[in-house]
Design goal:
The chain is mostly helical and 317 residues long. It has 15 helices and no strands. It has helices spanning 2-11, 13-23, 25-31, 34-51, 53-56, 97-133, 135-150, 153-167, 170-173, 177-204, 208-215, 220-228, 233-256, 268-276, 285-311. Helix 13 packs parallel to helix 14 (268-276). It is globular. Mean pLDDT is 81; it is low at 1-12.
Length: 317
């Protein structure tokens, strides 16, 4: 009897939390902003189809046993010569374009998300230390950030990627290609997070609760992580949402230039690079459809980031 009385209360927690979110300011803004929920819906569909690719794709483009060499460069199904089940046609190797796009989207999304997380961790740590301690530590860390910003982001990413590839043995370059891309993008995008957190930390460290914690000799690390960090997360999350689209574009650019994902593990940028070679030979679908997929992902992420920035800005309410 006791279990039967507890279960309804437990099952009511989730709807209650959902209702509280929908009734909050952010939830109301999300429900009343068509651009926000439409972009969220599009992004949800793109992410779901990318991660469910093994279940819905015609073939695994990474498995050579599933590639049909005799089906090379078949046009989309609505054109003359198109065949089922290759809805968007095939490439010169006989890979289904739609399957390659789904698998490539999963790689681009994972690399972009991981790059944002790593750069956010680096930037938050640097910003907390610089803003809390100030003085020479602040000057040293901020001058390091200025040095990173003085070099063009794409050039910096290419240099970092080339450096890591040069240090790795040839047999390890393809297995660690995704990790190298994440590090390359992260080491060029942490400065924005550091500056944002530094500014918030410099404001928070002068407040009474921080001064009281320092008087009773609370360790500096605990003050930064337990007290100051939660009050700086709002602008950080907005910046992370906006930078996700930039990280995905950076990965696509590096792969397009040939210093990103290899042909055996193609991302959207790699697919666009391969398709660009056949653009003027009549196989236009090899570059158009991956480009459209990349554009939809980046556009939906940027629209969500713009909405979140406006929703969390009290001056715009």
């Amino acid at each position: 009897m006791l279990v039967e009385k507890v279960r309804p209360a437990e099952t009511a927690k989730a709807p209650g939390r959902l209702r509280r979110f929908l009734d909050s300011d952010i939830g109301w803004s999300f429900r009343t902003t068509p651009v926000a929920w439409l972009s969220a819906l599009v992004l949800l569909v793109l992410v779901a189809t990318a991660f469910l690719a093994p279940l819905i794709a015609v073939q695994n483009p990474y498995d050579l046993s599933q590639i049909f060499i005799d089906k090379a460069e078949i046009p989309p199904i609505w054109q003359e010569g198109g065949e089922w089940p290759f809805l968007l046609g095939t490439d010169p190797q006989g890979r289904d374009v739609l399957s390659a796009i789904l698998y490539g989207s999963r790689i681009s999304l994972i690399i972009g998300f991981c790059a944002v997380v790593v750069s956010m961790v680096i930037g938050v740590f640097v910003g907390l230390v610089a803003g809390f301690h100030g003085g020479r530590i602040d000057n040293l860390l901020m001058r390091l950030g200025d040095t990173v910003l003085s070099i063009p982001t794409l050039l910096m990413a290419i240099l970092v990627s080339a450096l890591f590839r040069g240090l790795l043995p040839p047999e390890l370059r393809e297995p660690f290609a995704a990790m190298v891309l994440v590090l390359s993008i992260s080491l060029t995008n942490w400065v924005q997070y550091a500056r944002t957190v530094r500014a918030s930390t410099m404001v928070e460290r002068r407040k009474e609760y921080v001064l009281a914690a320092r008087i009773i000799r609370v360790p500096a690390t605990r003050i930064m992580l337990r007290h100051i960090l939660p009050n700086t997360l709002t602008p950080v999350m907005v910046a992370a949402t906006l930078n996700l689209g930039l990280a995905i574009l950076s990965e696509a650019t590096l792969s397009f230039l040939g210093v990103g994902m290899p042909i055996t593990q193609p991302s959207l940028g790699t697919l666009i690079r391969i398709g660009n070679q056949y653009l003027f030979s009549g196989s236009w679908w090899l570059v158009v459809f991956p480009s459209l997929q990349l554009g939809l992902i980046v556009l939906s992420v940027n629209l969500l980031g713009d909405w979140l920035r406006d929703a969390l800005n009290p001056k715009l309410r």
